Amino acid sequence: MRHFLNIADHHPDTIKHMLEVGIQLRHERQQGKANAPVLAGKSLAMLFQKPSLRTRVSFEQAMNELGGHAVVLGQHEVGLGERESVGDVTRVLAGMVHGIAARVFHHEHLVEMSTSSTVPIVNMLSDHSHPAQALADAMTIIDEFSPSPEVGNFDVTGRTVAFVGDGNNVARSLAAICKVLGMNFTLASPEGYELPEDGFMKITHDPEEAVEGADVLYADTFVSMGEEGEKDEKLKAYDGFQINRPLVNRAADHAIVLHCLPAYRGVEITDQVMDGPRSRVFSQAHNRLHAQKGLLAVLMGGV
Description:
Blueprint: H1 12-30, E1 43-48, H2 54-65, E2 69-74, H3 75-78, H4 86-94, E3 99-103, H5 107-116, E4 121-125, H6 131-145, E5 160-164, H7 169-181, E6 184-188, E7 202-204, H8 207-211, E8 216-219, H9 231-237, H10 245-248, E9 256-259, H11 271-274, H12 281-299
Parallel strand pairs: 1-2, 1-3, 3-4, 5-6, 5-8, 6-7, 8-9
Helix pairs in contact: 1-12, 2-12, 4-5, 6-7, 6-12
């Protein structure tokens, strides 16, 4: 039994296998075939401290399509770390379900859950990382730049992803999966908002420099949930970091644009780009389902 808290916690072959399984399951679905019920008789408890659209639907539908069942619980019902301790909640659920997925404010809660649980713990988002999103991001890049990905022989080595925005949980997980797949990762953030240097990624404070010749441009909200009190300060700091047509034109001619959503149109990305021919934002969102099926099939189904 293994947990799924961060991309970097796993051997690259495991991450690649999750992607291969997700791509194969998607291919079956597109052909009108039902996926094998590899999670038949298994249940996943899903805990939400933060609101969710793509995460809830993708995980719950993934369980359904793989023959399993999801139990969805909000913070007002559970009171994770408030009404009951994180450890107590985890021990109770682990005796009733076969896996626990949580979308939390504090990554430490997930770590504590992993030390208390006898079933897999899945990170559906924390302030530190968003590995489930990174799987869908990688799948979307594979779709664009690797021929015939459904046969499980994808290769995106050497491609460059430019993330223009906050050095946040999404950026951290995206950088980690870029490293796994042999892609280059550049982060463009204002001073004081970047990720720590780790010797792998390139960090710049100049968005134009970041996207020069890039294969993928990635946007995310400048103000994440829980940071509303910093909104004015952050929006001022991120002036000039919007992904717009002039910025896209500095990337490679074949470059695509991604955004993990929800998007604040006219702030971090323009309508012209998000709805334009370079955008893969909605196929990226749809890939959340397929990526999560690959994750759950491997983690809980032993595929």
